[in-house]
Design a protein that fits this description.
single chain; eight-stranded antiparallel beta sheet; 0% helix; globular
């Protein structure tokens, strides 16, 4: 996995027991698993966590997140497969707002939407 060159400013983090291995910079569910497509996220992981570890999840502030496709600055984002970010469409859950853009898969900085 590549690493983002984005800075971020977490305001609040909560601890959740990882139900599975959690890769860094992915949306994490309230159950401690990587979010499924269009799922409401608890927050975003900022480091890798192993299953059964008590992991810190950023729930408020700005954070880097891995994307599956192009996302434009200002766009609402939701979850794609594997907890990555994608543009929100229609009635999908909004988990954040893009603070910058990327062409194709990569990393962006988002403001988390609780």
């Amino acid at each position: 996995m590549s690493k983002p060159d984005k800075t971020y400013q977490p305001i609040q983090a909560v601890t959740v027991k990882a139900a599975e291995d959690l890769p860094a910079f992915r949306f994490v569910s309230h159950l401690g698993s990587v979010c499924a497509e269009n799922q409401k996220a608890l927050g975003v992981s900022d480091v890798n966590w192993l299953k059964d570890e008590f992991s810190s999840v950023i729930t408020l502030g700005t954070i880097a997140i891995e994307t599956t496709t192009t996302i434009n600055i200002g766009s609402a984002v939701s979850t794609s497969t594997d907890g990555k970010a994608k543009p929100a469409t229609g009635g999908t859950e909004i988990n954040g707002r893009a603070l910058d853009s990327c062409n194709g898969a990569g990393f962006i900085k988002i403001s988390i939407v609780p």
